Amino acid sequence: MITILAIESSCDETSAAICRDGKILSNVIVNQSVHEKYGGVVPELASRAHLQNIVPVVDEALASAGCQLSTVDAFSFTQSPGLIGALLVGAQFAKSLSLALDKPLIPVHHMQAHVLANLIPANKPGFPFLCLTVSGGHTQIVLCEDFLQMKIIGQTLDDAAGEAFDKSAKLLGLPYPGGPLIDKHARAGDPNKFKFPEPQIPGLDFSFSGLKTAILYFIQNEKQKNENFVQQNMNDICASIQQRIVSILLNKLRKAAEQTGIKNICIAGGVSANSGLRKAFAETGEHLGWKTFIPPFEYCTDNAGMIAITAYHKYLAAEFADLSVSPSARAEW
Ligand code: KG4
Ligand code: ZN
């Protein structure tokens, strides 16, 4: 029996999870509301909040799994990428436990973990599979050939899909993080009311910065004619923006599936919570004969459960690190 305690602290969620033999027994996530009024995550405040949260979060993960610290076989943490001060809190905590209890230490790459979150539910994809990982910091299409064998075959050249949602929301005067609010307004709007451009980027890469500029000019223009334009058309604007972001994502995913011939297709990351993306993904999958997978919501946004499942497979492959390992804000795989 292998029990792993994992910690995720790369951005503004403090999370701890217990995984036993590949099953997640607990996954405790604490969000940091302190950033709301700043319209984005403030790194220094994130580090401080992680320091306050980490002991109670780890205690709760152990308690709700019915597990003692002394029975943990390995300690794991998010090594990269992320905010360096935030990563350091989780890394130092896991290193201290590993040193004190003389158990192995397993650093995990956050983006690999988003992909392997698809292996947490009972209904999981077989290998090889493609995963579209869409979060606030990343947009990638990953070809996953085995548990720890993955390569990025497409990625954003500028903003991430989550940023495209959040920055669009900011232009509409919605608070941070705006992605879920665009989703909410879009449900009541007409997605064909306004047309935003689809970027012409070759291959499997993405770009969202042009869309942001197009939205900015569109709003400025319309406001000159009617200063209440945004308030009066909020649902339709949100639905139109969402439809464009979703079509950019799915067109590339469709292309990746065509090029690789792979039909096991997953999405992961915070933006996979978007109702428009989920619906279009399911419809495209049905149309093209894909087997589609999306992890349950608590494993889509940042969480330690995905770190724990990745650490479990690294444990089986004996991929351990010594105490000199340090986190890194940016890291290639
Ligand atoms: O994976 P995640 O929790 O954190 C990162 O690693 O970045 O993703 C957060 C991102 C934010 O940009 C947020 O606005 C977006 O996911 N998001 C959504 C929705 N829920 C979260 N975007 C659109 N629609 C949603 N329902
Ligand atoms: Zn993430």
Provide key terms for this protein:
single chain, 333 residues, alpha/beta, Nucleotidyltransferase, domain 5, 2 domains, five-stranded mixed β-sheet, 9 helices, binds 5'-O-[(R)-(carboxyoxy)(hydroxy)phosphoryl]adenosine, binds zinc ion
Question: What topology does this entry show?
Answer:
Blueprint: E1 3-8, E2 13-20, E3 23-31, H1 43-65, E4 74-80, H2 84-101, E5 105-109, H3 110-116, E6 129-134, E7 139-146, E8 149-155, H4 161-171, H5 179-186, H6 209-225, H7 229-260, E9 264-268, H8 275-288, E10 291-293, H9 304-316
Parallel strand pairs: 1-4, 4-5, 6-9, 9-10
Antiparallel strand pairs: 1-2, 2-3, 6-7, 7-8
Helix pairs in contact: 1-2, 3-9, 4-5, 4-6, 4-7, 5-7, 7-8
The chain binds 5'-O-[(R)-(carboxyoxy)(hydroxy)phosphoryl]adenosine and zinc ion.
**Helical stretch tally:** 9
User: How many strands in all?
Assistant: 10
How are the strands of the biggest sheet laid out side by side? Answer: 3-2-1-4-5
- Which structural class do you get from the secondary structure elements? alpha/beta
What binds here, in terms of ligands, is: 5'-O-[(R)-(carboxyoxy)(hydroxy)phosphoryl]adenosine, zinc ion
Uncertain segments are none
Shape: globular
User: What string gives the helices and strands in order?
Assistant: EEEHEHEHEEEHHHHEHEH
Largest sheet: 5 strands, mixed
Q: Over all CA atoms, what is the radius of gyration?
A: 20 Å
Task: Report the end-to-end length measured between terminal Cα atoms.
Answer: 29 Å
Residue-averaged pLDDT: 96
Indicate how many domains the architecture comprises: 2
